[in-house]
Specification:
Blueprint: E1 2-9, H1 10-18, H2 30-42, E2 49-55, E3 74-79, H3 82-93, E4 97-102, H4 106-114, E5 118-120, H5 122-126
Parallel strand pairs: 1-2, 1-4, 2-3, 4-5
Helix pairs in contact: 1-2
């Protein structure tokens, strides 16, 4: 089996452990996404590949800002449906990698398990740094 991959359900984890109270008002903004990326960069996780997936529908009227990271482990992905992207990637990768998804979304957790992925709750990943 190749290197393990950790996939983070971006907006779900933002709501579960990063944004509280008034912070939630701008949950879809790049500043909120950056906060999650910064928190992940600070974690000492034993995953050589960590992907953070955010929902973003294509727009013809504006060019959205992409959040980036200088951490070589991190890959930030924007998908029309983060849930669909995550399930497809887990299914594609699970035969060659151990794939773990961080989410508190119950339907997504069930779908990930059905395609041979494992699941962690956001609190399990972020509790050590609280």
């Amino acid at each position: 089996m190749n290197d393990p991959i950790l996939i983070i359900d971006g907006f779900n984890v933002l709501h579960a452990v990063v944004l509280i109270g008034r912070d939630r008002a701008g949950w879809w903004q790049p500043a909120a996404q950056r906060r999650l990326v910064e928190r992940v960069e600070q974690l000492t996780l034993s995953y050589p590949a960590i992907w953070i997936v955010f929902d973003r529908r294509p727009s013809t009227s504006e060019v959205p800002e992409d959040v980036t990271s200088n951490d070589p482990r991190l890959r930030i992905v924007y998908a029309p449906s983060a849930d669909e992207w995550i399930v497809q990637e887990v299914e594609r990768l699970a035969l060659q990698h151990s794939v773990t998804v961080v989410t508190s979304d119950r339907p997504l957790r069930d779908r990930v398990r059905r395609v041979r992925g494992t699941v962690l709750s956001p609190s399990a990943v972020f509790r050590s740094e609280s």
